[in-house]
Amino acid sequence: MAVIEVNHLTKDYGHGRGIFDVSFGVEQGEVFGFLGPNGAGKSTTMRHLMGFSHPQNGTAAINGYSCWKEHDRIMGDVGYIPGEVALPEGLDGVGFLKMMQGLRKSDDGRTQELLETFDMNPNTSLKRMSIGEKRKLAIIAAFMGDPQVLLLDEPTSGLDPVMQEVFIDFVRKEKEKGKTILLSSHIFNEVEALCDRIAIIKEGRLVSVVNAEEVKHYKRKTFEVTFERNSDYKAFKSEDFEIREEYPEQNMLAIACEDDHADDFVKTLVRYRIKNLVEHQQTLEEYFMHFYKSERTFGGIENGKRK
Question: Quick one: 60 and 161 in the same domain?
């Protein structure tokens, strides 16, 4: 039995918003990536796992307990970072952490370790804290009770690049302890660095669940072809291949090609005068864009590492 189980989960808010027939499981000791743009349904799924929302159809369970019906039996061993951090403004950081310590049964040593790891000074009013400081506080609160199950919804949003790397290193160590982690994100390098398996969600529906290693060896490549003549550049665009990017000022096309069609691609290329040909290794971004290739702005997707 998976530690986290989502089966045919559906919540329809109307006008195409919500989640529809979402199913996946997360095994003990696994980091499962939930990748999609803003509004794709990641946070809605997380809220169901936290028992904040009742599904219209399907179930969400942690350790075999219903997240809606048996919420109290689950939450003692679940750490949660919400996508949008809302903290009580009447407290300072110290007061908030003491309150959370009481709820989480965390000791001072664990809390101090987390404060040092994330370079956090809690002696500030929550009202005056920056977005990054509030995010750090939410991270510390989620991990302070040393929970075995972690639901992390856009956990590094608002953190600077250095602190994002600190977070990634920290989660790696938590994984080594056997923690079960669901990581919702739209940052490619974060998902690539941490996840064993990756689910891609689009418009509230899962479109792919794949092992992270399989993405690297996915039988699909991208070729950057630079043509000697502009006429060849224009003529090739009418060929039956998927063009991912066009660079007319360089007479260059970025072309995606399945391994099964590689021979046809090469045979077609020899009919043209080619100045340069570069083959690129499959990346998570390219795999993701295979499902979102019709999008132009990519709905808030961030390229964690620009080529």
Answer: yes
Q: What is the rounded distance in angstroms from the CA atom of residue 23 to the CA atom of residue 5?
A: 8
Instruction: Report whether 215 contacts 282 (CB < 8 A).
Output: yes
Q: Which domain holds residue 242?
A: 219-281
pLDDT exceeds cutoff 80 at 248: yes
Give per-residue pLDDT as tens, 72-109. Answer: 999 889 999 999 998 888 899 999 999 998 887 778 89
* Domain shared by 273 and 168, yes or no: no
C-alpha 254/C-alpha 205 separation (Å) is 28
Residues 214, 191: Cα–Cα separation, whole Å: 14
Q: What gap in Å lies between CA 81 and CA 280, rounded to an integer?
A: 35
What CATH code is carried by the domain that includes residue 106?
3.40.50.300
Residues 192 and 258 in one domain: no
| Structural contact between residues 236 and 225, judged by C-beta atoms closer than 8 angstroms | yes
- Which token pair is 242? 């998927």
Token pair belonging to 83: 């996508």
Which of the residue ranges 200-214, 243-257, 264-278 would you say has the lowest mean pLDDT? Answer: 200-214
**pTM exceeds cut of 0.70:** yes
> Residue 294 — pLDDT band, cuts 50, 70, 90?
very low
3-class DSSP state of 303? coil
- How remote is the C-alpha of 37 from its chain's centroid? 9
Token representation of residue 56: 């219209």
- C-alpha 130/C-alpha 286 separation (Å) is 34
In a domain, 78, yes or no: yes
Nearest residue to 23 via CA among 236, 208, 217: 208
Domain boundary at 211, 235, 270, which? 211
Q: Which residue has the tokens 């063009």?
A: 243
Cβ-contact 141, 151 below 8 angstroms:
no
